[in-house]
Structure formats: C-alpha cells, structure tokens
Specification:
551 residues, alpha+beta, 6-stranded mixed beta sheet, 5-stranded mixed beta sheet, 18 helices, 24 strands, 24% strand
Length: 551
Amino acid sequence: MDNKLLILWRYFSSGHIRTEEIAEALQISQKQTTRYLKKWNDEGWLTFTPGRGRGNVSRLQWLKNIEENFEDEVLLKLDREPVEISSKYLMYDWSTDTKLRLMNKFHTQFGFVQKAKDKLVVPKRYPFRTLHPLDAADAHSANMVSNVFNRLVSLTDQGEILPELAHSWDVSPTKLRLYLRKDVCFHDGSVLTATDVINCLEKLRFHEQNKDLWTPIDEIVSKAPLVVDILYSRGCSYILPLLSMMTSSIYKESKGRIYGTGGFLVEEDTDQKTTLTAFKEHFQERPLLDAVEFVKVPKDFPIIYHSSLEANHHETFQVESDSGFGVLIMNAYRKGSQIANVEVRQYIHQILAMNRHRIPEYESRAIPNDNSCMIGNRLPYSIPSAIRPEFKEPLIIRVAEHTEEASRWLLDTFAQYDIPVKVIKVSFEDAIFNKQLTDETDMFIHGEIFELNQNLSFYFFLTNGFAPLPLILGKNKRWQKRISQYVHTPFEDWTDLNVAVEKELIDEAIMIPLYYQKRYIPFSTELMNVNIKHFGYVDFSKLWLRPTLDQ
C-alpha cells in the first residue's frame, strides 16, 4: 500500500490531468511523479497516457477503486499484525467515512488484554519526548517519569510528606538526614546506595533549569551506608517537599541507559510504541498490571480505556482530570518595547477581560477564569480602567503549537480592537527551551500543569528554568527580592505568599489568568481502581480488570 496512490485517488478523477498538478498534490518532484505513475500503471491500478508535445495534456484512467482495496487490506492487517505496526495505516489520507470505520476497528485492539499476562494497550497521539527526570518539561513525559522512577519522599496534595526511598528522616534548621531503605533494586538489578542518591541530587543541584530551586543547599554527603545528609546553613523549610518532585527522581545511568526503581520498567521506547513492564522486585506494592503499552495513533483518534476482550464494550464512565491552566504572559521588562509600559499592559488586560468568555469558542476544553490560577484560592481582582494607548509598532506575539487554539482567540481579539501584531509561530520545544526567542517576544499564551501539591508547584512555576516567568522576572531586582522571600518563609505559610505574589503579577499585568482546562477520560466499567495522580494522569500501578466469571 502507498499513501501517495491513495492521495492521487482521493483528489483526481479519471480524465485529463497535468503531471505538475500531481507532483504538487503528492509533494514530490515531477521526475519522481513520472516514476510513480509508471509503477502504478505496471501494477494495474491505473493507466496513464502522457501528453506528447507542447500543449498536450496527459490522461489518467482509474482501473480499480483504490480506497476500497486499501481498506480491505488494512482490515486484514489489523487482525494479523501487532497494533504498533498496523497503527501506521491510520495516518493515511482516508476519506472521513473510511477513516471512521478503520478507527472503530482499530479501537478494538486497545484496552485491557487478559491472557497469560494482563496488559493495557493505550493510544498515544505523540511520542514521549524524554524519559529522563531532568529533561521532562512536558506533562506526558513527566507522567512516565512518575511510573518509572521513585523519589526519596512523596508529597500529597494536602501537604503530607510520606516515605518512599527514604523510610525515615531527621530535620534540623541546618540539616536533613535521610535513612534509605535496604535492598532497593534498580531495574538493572543493582542495589540502591547512598552514592547513587548523592550523584542524582548533585546533578540536579547544578542543573541549568533547576539550580535556582536548590540555591539554599550547601552540600550533600554520606557519613554512613544508606544515610544521606543534606546541609543548608541558611535554612530550607521546603527541602522535603523539594525532594518529592519529579525532577528529584532517583535514577542510575549505565552504558548509555537510565534505570529507575519504580513499579514499571521501560522495556521498549520508540516513536511508534512505548512499553512499560511491571517490575517484580519493586520495594513497594507490585503493579497489578503486567504491562502498559502506548501505541501511536492519529491526533483525532478517540482515547478510551476499555477491555479489548469484549465484542460489545461495556459501558463507560467519565473520569474528570485537571489539565492545567492558561495565562497570558507579558514580557514586562523588554527594553525598547511598548510592552514595558504598564499602561499598555493594563489596556490589554482590560480588553482581554471583556472577551475572556469567548475562549471556549476556540478551545473547547477551556473554562474561562477571571480569578486565581490556584484551585481553591478564589482571588477576585479589579479590572483596570485603561485608556487606549497609541500603538507605534506591532506587538510581537509568540504562538506555540500546543496553545494554537487559544492564541487564535487572542489574535482575533486584537484584530477586533485594531491592535497591530506580528506573529511568530514556534514548536513546543522552542517555546520551552529557546530562551532568546522568549526574550524577543512581547507576549504569549502559556499553558501550565501543576504536579500534585499546588503550593510547591506554583513556586516551581516562578523559579524553574523551563517556565517563562523566571526569565522575565529575573531582569527586575524588586522581583528577585520578592521571590527570594520563599526561602525564608516556612513552607506551611506558602499559600498566603503564593496568593500575594500572584495578585502582584496580575495587578502589574505581567500574568493574566485566562482559563482552566479539564480533561474527561472515558473508562470502561470493567476497569477498576481508577485513580488520578501526577499531572492529572491515571495511576497505572493501581489499575486492574474485574474478570467476567460464570455464575
């Protein structure tokens, strides 16, 4: 099967045609087009008679219905081939009706497979960008990290610290002493040591994107086997919560591979498929599943968790999950730009507040938010009454692929008020990693997903190198001093501090709340113990399938 032949069938009927038109549709050269046409002619799909001489057009005559033939072939392959191989055919340029039939058939290949081993096959629309804890800047990758690696401690959304790789600890004003569990194994079979922990934390402490969070730490040492001391002469009330974050995961690198201690180990990781297998030697409860397999599917493929055993799927129930929030970030200290003028930013704030209710027309999952970004902290604030400034030059707006829908709302709103703009389109990677690009932009919509504990996550949002605010606020000494207060504030008082800092960001029109996002995931009623954990994703280690038994 050839997707180029399917495209030709879909967009060109029998009759006169020019090879230039075919080449343009197939996005190949005319020389390549001629070779393909001869090949398809020889295979009996069509007859192609090239035009002879100047002004004479070619003629195409179809001999077979390409889409019907290809659909029959794909249906056979879906029954015979592994799902990660057959999934590539869904990327072909099918008509709407054919694609729907194939997707319905393909969906039966996903779900909970209970044979010799229990396996959950999950559709994924994008490959995982990374499985390394220090580089997991997106929620999909970070969720994988949460399944493959462990932290020294864990932090609940209520703020309770629970033991993980460390079973106990002693805290003083200048030192945290951690006592590690015995006989904890990495996925390569080696045993966790204090040296492994120190190596990970030292890399994290000097990591470009995370070093600001670790500024209070002076030294990390071990004075006895399975004992780790973290020293901080100036105090660090948030040291235990800090150790619970995904970036603080403990891992071991060996021979070009990275190993964790988590409930699942990575058996395979390609663009097409990622397979997690239960780690039987896990020091905590073994996952109830034997494997979770993520297989790439088209963007419009429905994500449903169900059993693939039943011809007629069981009823589903919706699980609501927080999918983060969206804010407009304005580069308030950009030299030479109008955006550095607070009156300009407040006028923008004013018109966006007046049009915020229209965001769901562009982003269906968005819920307009005119309050705090932090759930549970309703923070009403006054909308500034601003006079329209004179826009002497276009505002430079960055539009990233993951915020494209909401950005269209922003651009349409500016067009409604005759505000001149210049749009720069960027990839997700550039939006996260290209700091120079952020520095050269006046504003952009930013999407953020908190990890689990809101108080710690908001501080992470203000300080970690992957987020945009540290780059902007770091140019201003007053803001540097303001954020340094976190280090000297007891962690239990961070809620009030977060609320105050957020209000200042809004009042100065540096960060404007726009929307919350919710995700509603359908689960079959057969799947049990569905719990939402880090970054709004399901905890795979707890899932199991209730078997159908004879009465």
